[in-house]
Design brief:
246 residues, TIM Barrel, 9 helices, Cyclic-di-GMP_PDE-like, EAL_dom, cyclic-guanylate-specific phosphodiesterase activity
Amino acid sequence: MKSKNLDISGKQLRMTVEFQPIIRLSGNKIFRYEAIARFFNADGFLIPAQQSIAAIEQSGAIREVTNFIFESICHLIKLKRDLTISFTLSHLLINDREYLAWLYQQCLHKGVLPQNIEIEISQKTTQAQFIESLPFLKQAKEYGFMISLGDFSAENLQVDSLALFNFDTIKIDRSIIEGIAESEKKLLTLQVVISQLMSTGVTLICEGVKKSSDLSLLNHYSPDGIHGYIFHRPLTFTQIRLLEGF
């Protein structure tokens, strides 16, 4: 499952899936991955992900794209069953319980445990959509999937309301983290966010860490993990096989 060709509103795209390592700060070892879609135009040039996803959602092809991501995840986990991999679910598919059931059936068909897959909901989803998604999230947990909240920036949801959603993981947005070594105000914001989130008992991951000066400060505040180019860029299927040794 190396790539998939897409026709998006008359434009030809080639899609691949890469895997961003997430590092556990205690020991600096990879403990899970995040699946990331990459899109290339007909000339082979990489297209910005947000631009691509917006066009794909508008064209109605988001389910086709998500299917390919999910199948790539299942294929990888089947080859090494102790991997944990997350993927972001489009806001257009939140509350689609028939689609959720399809994802679960794919796990059964492929012999993959849902417990090794984490469905990520972006905080860019509105609070009203979150409230409406409670039955969906509950069903996902009953199937065995883990659930995470991405891009957390304390703007859309309040920390004291997070218990309603029973998230396994919360990913702190890079906008909070980037530049904490140069800005006392940003560092204070991060301290408050981490302190509040740690009280919820979820796994905390800091997103998009690029600078060693920011990483040095993060080590003092005990998030569970980080991802960012300071450790690894996203890995292709071949690269992850070499790294994991299978």
